[in-house]
């Protein structure tokens, strides 16, 4: 499961349940973690949730990944971005691109591991999908044959599997 910043900032309770039951390998692109960190300065609730994210990364319940496929062990590397973050639309487009890049990398890696019948760094992924409420990101994912889900559909899936 690859997360978008909106999912983390809107619905931490369901996210914590999804992570807690170990049903999913959760990957957070570094660009998304950077976006959440930027929002901390203007929203105290996001800052509180960022602390939860730091804890989940340290406990290895959430894996932090760069767009180039490198897993990081903590949030001390704050950004893959080097240019100014003034234009919100451009920043959002770059984050979407990074999310799709991470998903593509993991999808490719899972396809290789399933043909070679061996586990990958990602634990032998069965499915790669992006969780986002952003319709444009879901369309972008679909155009690259990447599964995606809204948080609502993920909640339904978790509820049905926990019964």
The largest beta-sheet arranges its strands as 1-5-6
CATH class: Alpha Beta
Number of helices: 7
Oligomer: single chain
Secondary-structure element order, N to C: EHHEHHEEHEHEH
In one word, what is the shape?
Answer: globular
Radius of gyration, in angstroms, nearest whole number = 15 Å
Count of discrete structural domains:
1
Q: Might you state the CATH topology name?
A: Rossmann fold
**Low-pLDDT residue spans:** 81-85, 114-125
Look at the structure and name the CATH superfamily.
Answer: 5'-nuclease
Task: Describe what you observe in this structure.
The protein has helices at about 5-10, 10-20, 30-40, 45-60, 90-115, 135-145, 150-160; strands at about 1-5, 25-30, 60-65, 70, 130, 145-150. With about 160 residues, the chain is mainly alpha-helical. The strands form two sheets. It has a three-stranded parallel β-sheet. Helix 3 packs antiparallel against helix 4 (about 45-60) and helix 3 runs antiparallel to helix 5. The protein is globular.
